[in-house]
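Design request, C-alpha cells follow.
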C-alpha cells in the first residue's frame, strides 16, 4: 500500500485563496472610483455587481472540494477529502479509471502548476489544481498509478513528465 498525503485546509482558507485572485480588478476599480477618475453610472455598477457575484460563485464552486490523501492498494485507489469541511472517502478501481497529467502554464517557469485529472464513469477529481500538493508528489502519484495499471506512458505524457521533472530540479531551491 502506498499513501500520498498533503496538508488539509479549511474551506474558508481555500475559498479565500481562490477569491483573492479575482478581487484585484475590483480593488483597482474602487481605487479609481474614490480618486474620482471614473464616474459611477448604473451600467457600470450593474457590471461590477455581476462580476462580484460571479467571482464569489466561482470561488465557492472551485474551492468546495479538496483531496488531501490518496491511497493505492492492489487494484484500488482511495481518495480522502473534504467537501466544504465535511470529510469524505471514495474508492476507485484502477482498472476502470483513467488518469491525465496536465499543466497550467505561467509566464514564470517555476509558477507552472501540474495537476492530475483522475476519472471513472461516475466521478472526476482534480489533484493539485489549487497547487496544494508538492510537485514531486504529483509525479509519484502519476507514476504509481501507471505502474499499478500496467499502462505505458505515452509520448504526450512523457513531454509533460520531462517538463515536470525539469521544473522540480530547477525550482527546488526556490
Amino acid at each position: 500500500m502506498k499513501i500520498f498525503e498533503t496538508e488539509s485546509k479549511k474551506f474558508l482558507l481555500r475559498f479565500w485563496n481562490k477569491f483573492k485572485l479575482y478581487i484585484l480588478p475590483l480593488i483597482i476599480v474602487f481605487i479609481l472610483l474614490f480618486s474620482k477618475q471614473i464616474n459611477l453610472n448604473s451600467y457600470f455598477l450593474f457590471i461590477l455587481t455581476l462580476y462580484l457575484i460571479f467571482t464569489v460563485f466561482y470561488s465557492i464552486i472551485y474551492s468546495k472540494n479538496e483531496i488531501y490523501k490518496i491511497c493505492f492498494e492492489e487494484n484500488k485507489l482511495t481518495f480522502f477529502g473534504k467537501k466544504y469541511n465535511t470529510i469524505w472517502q471514495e474508492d476507485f478501481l484502477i482498472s476502470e479509471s483513467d488518469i491525465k497529467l496536465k499543466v497550467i502554464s505561467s509566464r514564470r517557469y517555476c509558477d507552472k502548476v501540474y495537476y492530475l485529472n483522475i476519472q471513472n464513469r461516475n466521478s472526476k477529481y482534480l489533484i493539485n489544481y489549487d497547487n496544494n500538493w508538492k510537485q514531486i508528489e504529483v509525479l509519484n502519484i502519476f507514476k504509481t498509478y501507471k505502474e499499478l495499471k500496467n499502462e505505458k506512458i505515452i509520448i504526450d505524457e512523457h513531454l509533460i513528465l520531462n517538463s515536470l521533472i525539469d521544473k522540480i530540479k530547477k525550482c527546488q531551491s526556490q
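Comment from the thread starter after seeing the answer: thanks! The helical segments are 11-22, 24-34, 42-63, 135-149, 155-171.
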